[in-house]
Design goal:
The chain folds into 2 domains: 127 residues, 3-Layer(aba) Sandwich (Rossmann fold), CATH 3.40.50; 64 residues, Arc Repressor Mutant, subunit A (Orthogonal Bundle), CATH 1.10.10.10. The radius of gyration is 18 Å and the shape is globular. With 219 residues, it is of the alpha/beta class. The protein is built from 10 helices and 6 strands, in the order E-H-E-H-E-H-E-H-E-H-E-H-H-H-H-H. Helix 4 links the parallel strand 4 and strand 5.
Length: 219
């Protein structure tokens, strides 16, 4: 049982100076505490399983085990762990892999000084977070793809209520939370959720979140 009321954070990056800089930013918050650090992916997994922080911030390009594989191993053993990925690149392939591995957010290192706090707040509360630059790149690519293919945006097929629920699901809210917010039953939300997945031709929550980022619904 955790005694500390502080948000407990694990920070993993193989660049010591960057890790120290990020730690300094994080610990400017009196209610946050960096309880463990790691310089490679294997150590990040070991420390996370041992310390069980509230949130793990993992560099995507760590030696011995990359951040995506580390995320996959951690989430397999600790399904409720909140993970924020750090990366140098707004690469859609990496973002897709990170989400499928179980990460809740994707933060670019060059915007960490301004976005780190917001990212941690969002991910620690179970919501999704993406650096604004990542969201913009993905939205631009998405619009260009639709234009080149001459196809309609499936998002337009959603009803007003489905769009509401789509955003809430993409932000990381549970069926129960959405049901309470909209004053309906969780079963109704589950039905809407199934219809949304079918209409958008996506197959799970990770793909739905990715679609939301591409569409510019969340950032």
């Amino acid at each position: 049982m955790k005694v500390s009321t502080k948000l407990r954070i694990l920070l993993a990056d193989d660049h010591t100076l960057l890790r120290q800089g990020l730690r300094k930013i994080l610990q400017e918050r009196p209610d946050w505490e960096v309880v463990a650090e790691a310089g490679d992916g294997r150590e990040a997994v070991r420390q996370t399983l041992a310390v069980q922080p509230d949130i793990a911030i993992l560099d995507i390009g760590m030696p011995l085990l990359n951040g995506i594989e580390a995320t996959r191993q951690i989430v397999r053993r600790l399904p409720e762990m909140h993970i924020l990925i750090l990366s140098m690149h707004a690469n859609e392939a990496y973002i897709i892999q990170a989400l499928k591995a179980g990460a809740k957010g994707y933060l670019l290192k060059d915007s960490a000084d301004t976005d780190l706090i917001r990212g941690v707040v969002a991910v620690a509360s179970g919501k999704s977070f993406f650096s604004p630059a990542v969201a913009k790149v993905m939205l631009d690519d998405y619009v260009r793809h639709l234009t080149e293919k001459g196809i309609a945006d499936r998002f337009d097929s959603l009803s007003e209520r489905e769009r509401e629920i789509f955003q809430l699901v993409a932000e990381g809210h549970s069926n129960k939370e959405i049901a309470e917010l909209l004053s309906v039953s969780p079963t109704t939300i589950e039905t809407h959720r199934a219809h949304i997945l079918q209409k958008l031709d996506v197959h799970n929550t990770a793909e739905l979140v990715l679609y939301a980022v591409r569409r510019g619904v969340i950032s």
